[in-house]
Amino acid sequence: MSELPLIGEAVAIAAEPRLAGARIGVVTFPGTLDDRDAARAIRLAGASAISLWHADTELGEVDAVVIPGGFSYGDYLRAGAIARFAPLMTRIIDAANSEAKLPVLGICNGFQILTESHLLPGSMIKNDHLKFNCSNQILRVENNTTAWTSDYALDQEIAIPLKNQDGQYIADEKTLDALEAENRVVFRYVGANPNGSRRSIAGISNAAGNVVGLMPHPEHAVEAGYGPETPGGAGGIDGLGFFTSILTKIVGGAK
Amino acid sequence: MSLETNRKFNIDTVENAEKTPDTELPWAELGLKKNEFDEVVKVLGRRPTGAELAMYSVMWSEHCSYKSSKNHLRQFGEKVTEEMKKDMLVGIGENAGVTNLGDGWAVTFKIESHNSPSFVEPYQGAATGIGGIVRDIISMGARPVAVMDPLRFGAIDHPDTARVMHGAVAGIGGYGNSLGLPNIGGEMVFDSVYQGNPLVNALAVGVMRHEDIRLANASGKGNKVVLFGARTGGDGIGGASVLASESFDDTKPSKRPAVQVGDPFAEKVLIECCLELFKGSLVEGIQDLGAAGISCATSELASNGDGGMEVELTSVLLRDPSLTPGEILMSESQERMMAVVTPENIEAFEAVMDKWAVEYSWLGEVTDSGRLIITWDGAVIVDVDPRTVAHDGPVYDRPYARPDWQDALQADSFTGSVQDAGRPAAPAQLAAAVTELISSPNMCSKSWITKQYDRYVGGNTALAFPDDAGVIRVDEETGLGVALATDANGRYTFLDPYHGAQLALAEAYRNVATSGAVPMAVSDCLNFGSPEDPDVMWQLAEAIRGLSDACMVLGIPVTGGNVSLYNQTGSTPIHPSPVVAVLGKFDDVARRTPSGWQEDGQAIYLLGTTAAELDGSEWSNLRGHLGGLPPKVDLAAERELGEILINASRDGMIDSAHDLSEGGLAAALVESSLRYGVGARIALQDLMDRDGVDLFTALFSETQARAIVGVPRSEEVRFNDMCTARGFMHLRIGVVDADSGILDINGVEDLALDALNEAHEGTLPKYFG
Fold first, then answer.
1. No. of H helices and E strands in chain B?
2. Rounded to the nearest 10 degrees, how much is the dihedral formed by the CA atoms of A146, A152, A157, A159?
3. Mean pLDDT over residues A48-55, rounded?
4. CB-based contact (8 Å) between B261 and chain A?
5. What's the domain range around A104?
6. Residues 570-599 (B) with a CB less than 8 A from some CB of A
7. Is B114 among the residues known to form the active site?
8. Is the pLDDT confidence value at B244 over 50?
9. What is the CATH number of the domain that holds A28?
10. Residue B497 backbone phi and psi in degrees, to 5
């Protein structure tokens, strides 16, 4: 298992050895697109990104897993419907449900794969306006006790790029009520609902809080000047908290 | 690997062709002229077989052979100095040109047209336009890193425009987004001249290490030829109806669709799989399959290499087993590549294919015979010198002459015309004029389109639409990066093709420099009408002459491109539309300059002088006038302006910069305000006094070689000194007013940013939902 190849060299980080010892896997399916970006985000947070291949039958030594965005297998069927059957997904599902509760983050297509895998409830359908939508989206963090959100303040508003075609989150009313009651709505869209998602839900967690899925892309808001636009290009790193949160959990204690 | 071949075709072998010299062949239906068919017979010394005829007809087509433009295009190779060549690693003629970026990095980019298919079937036409240009980039050994798409459609309110617009934009997004390539810019122009002939051009850019550069040639006798990727189907066959004559069976589809159907997932997998092949140095030569499919790939690979190749056509994996040999040779099915692999690397090659679950079939091998031999179940159906197919096609010196209407057109100036009556002058009229301009079809916000494209994927997008240029970081360690802009102005070029083409180059050059990058190379997509019309041929000849002359002056070479002719409806051609892409380089993309004003109190400077140049302008377009002469070209001033913008960016003297082009100063002021929702106070009296123009002209003239910049107070002295030392006209015209929410131009009624934004953003949703 090697580092994912970037276009250029990896962003240089003077990582603390303690942090760099944390190994976070990034899964690549045929058609995955944002795997390099997820790996970069992990490195920028200080951890080591480990490349995982969909056909692998063992998960190896990883402390957490990110399932990044893209169009796995082209998403010609329901998004994520084929990827869910990859050998590696079986391992990930088992590990997420095990005693050890492997932390798993599904972003965009990753979120779709997690719902197809039944690690998270509900499903995603085509945006209500039927078009691909790429925009800077404000989210409200409604649960900061999950493995992936502990570094955010409750009700903090963060700017994260949203880019998808099938981003409308749906579930039956009973499931939605249960998600709300169990505090499992982790992110909600602020302002106009960008895709018709039920109750403006942008991201949810499982009951234990180790599995989180969301449609927006935190890995595209980790480096100033390459994420959501702000005058001067100075901001735009609201997504980094996902990756520092999981590091805090893995290495324990203060960052 | 070979499929069974119980296909019962009446195979026209070379042996048969020799025995039956008088067989009637459907050369006319395949698009060949009588003299061209006679030439094929002369080259071969006999009549061609059906398969050979298929190959020559597609490879000698205007699209593949450049037969009408070749004589003129030579100028791009001739008007080049040693200085211009110093960074060119691969020039015109390969799949795409390659330019040295330094630090061992190279960049390759190219722009191409996909106009006709995008009119017939906008979604697939536009999608496969992206697919094709991306494969050109992969073929050079590069990882594609971004795409752009200049679009030109008919009138915004014509009922058919929405069909083309929705389809093309969705197709570009649907394909490009699925490849993980950020879309970083382009153009959108509405004009009724494009009603029956929209222009859908696509640009792709890729990066590689020097040692990874690959060329399309088949060298090394005994090396194996492999076809991989998607299977070959019946899509994209130009003149297929004719080939039915090859078959005994007339129950199969007699008319294959001419538009290709794209599968972006297959292309994404192909990208990763090719990069893995390059990394392992597993291919000797590689060529994508685009126009003319296997005909093109085999003949180009063979003629660029040792000159010989033998291929068994029944080994080609098919989607549709009823395809005839001619159809297989002509099919333009997407997502296919052909490579040459040494016998030692076969196993490793197959392992990469298996990892990515990509289908492949070994078709034959490289020979030193100087012949391209294609067999069907062992029977020879093609035996040609591949050069005669790929490179020695007909070349025409088409007659051309300045149209007899050109003088009258150029004499018809906007100023003083009927359409110029009631020119706005009062503050309220001017405010209304500014609002009308920035909400007009060509000047309105394009975010309805760009929101449908992923601009973030890859994590290296430093600037994208609506900034002047798209900027991509190449090396994450050093910040080395590239900037790209495409421009064309069909109206200017219609008025004066020589200078119009230069204006397109000047604007793209200026856009790249405005972002802070040093312009390095050019790729062009020349969209014109029928070369058989002497008027159009004159426009083409003049545009190429103008463009190549201007490249010399600016010192940047053309490294590749594409010519698209016959863009016309009936006998009415489109406006001549040379779309010019300029590539620039950043040592560190952190130095990029965005187009929007930022900090309160920063000074706003206008660089360059303003003349009364309204002919061909967006304002005259809004008033329904097209005549006169386009703005004057001043390449020396463009170069000087470029250096100022680049130095100012490098030395941190400016925080924003926006070029002045269509819509003039009025459009630029509004766009810089709306970029981040930051207002400004502007006074143009000094400008009017200095340049001798009125307020309307100051706002709406489209004089070239101008830009507005935002200068931090601490940098004003240094910035002024630099402009003065360079003798370049510069004038402080205002100050950034971050909190006012107003664009306040002296003599113009206050423009509230909220209202401007609503007007600017509202147009495309109003027409397209």
1. 27, 28
2. -90
3. 96
4. no
5. 18-251
6. 590, 594, 596, 598-599
7. yes
8. no
9. 3.40.50.880
10. -60, -40
Residue A73 lies in a domain: yes
Is A64 among the domain residues? yes
- Residue among A30, A217, A227 whose CB faces B269 most closely: A30
Report d(CA B707, CA B669) in Å as an integer.
10
How many Å apart are CA B118 and CA B161, to the nearest integer?
Answer: 12
Backbone region of residue B581 per phi and psi (left: phi > 0; alpha: psi in -120 to 50; beta: other values)? beta
pLDDT at B423 over 70: yes
Q: What is the pLDDT of residue B9?
A: 64
**Which of B395, B340, B540, B463 has the alpha carbon at shortest distance from B65?**
B395
Residue B15 pLDDT exceeds 90: yes
Domain count, chain A: 1
| Residues contacting residue A144 through CB under 8 Å, at least 6 positions apart | A150, A151, A152, A153, A154, A156
Predicted TM-score of the model (pTM) = 0.94
Contacts of B679 in chain A (CB under 8 A): none
Q: What is the DSSP string of B549-592?
A: HHHHHHT--EEEEEEE---EETTEEPPPEEEEEEEEEES-GGG-
Q: A36 to chain B: which residues are within 8 Å by CB?
A: 458-459
- CA–CA gap between residue A253 and residue B470 (Å, rounded): 42
The distance from CA B329 to its chain's CA centroid, rounded to whole angstroms, is: 27
Query: d(Cα B53, Cα B27) in Å, to the nearest integer?
Result: 7
- Cis peptide before B712, with omega less than 30 degrees from 0? no
pLDDT at residue A229 in the model: 78
Six token digits for residue B141:
């050994």
Alpha helices in B480-566 (DSSP H): 490-495, 497-515, 534-554
Question: Residue B63: what pLDDT?
Answer: 85
Has residue A4 got a pLDDT over 70? no
For A21-62, give the DSSP string.
Answer: T-EEEEEE-TTB-SHHHHHHHHHHHT-EEEEEETT-S---S-
pLDDT at B116: 87
| ipTM of this predicted structure | 0.92
Neighbours of B650 (CB within 10 A): 15
Mean pLDDT of B659-680: 97
Is position A4 within any domain? no
Domain assignment present for A5: no
C-alpha to C-alpha distance for B236 and B258, rounded to whole angstroms: 4
Give residue A20's pLDDT.
79
pLDDT band, very low/low/confident/very high, at B218 (cuts 50, 70, 90): confident
Provide the token pair at B334.
């997407």
Q: With an 8 Å Cβ cutoff, is A253 touching chain B?
A: no
pLDDT tens-digit series, residues B54-80: 899 989 988 888 999 999 999 999 999
pLDDT at B94: 74
Chain-chain contact of A132 with B453 (C-beta, under 8 angstroms): yes
As a whole number of angstroms, the distance between CA B28 and CA A34 comes to 49
B727-to-B537, B640, B723 alpha-carbon distances in Å = 40, 9, 6
Identify the DSSP state of B420: G
- Looking at residue B1, what is its pLDDT? 36
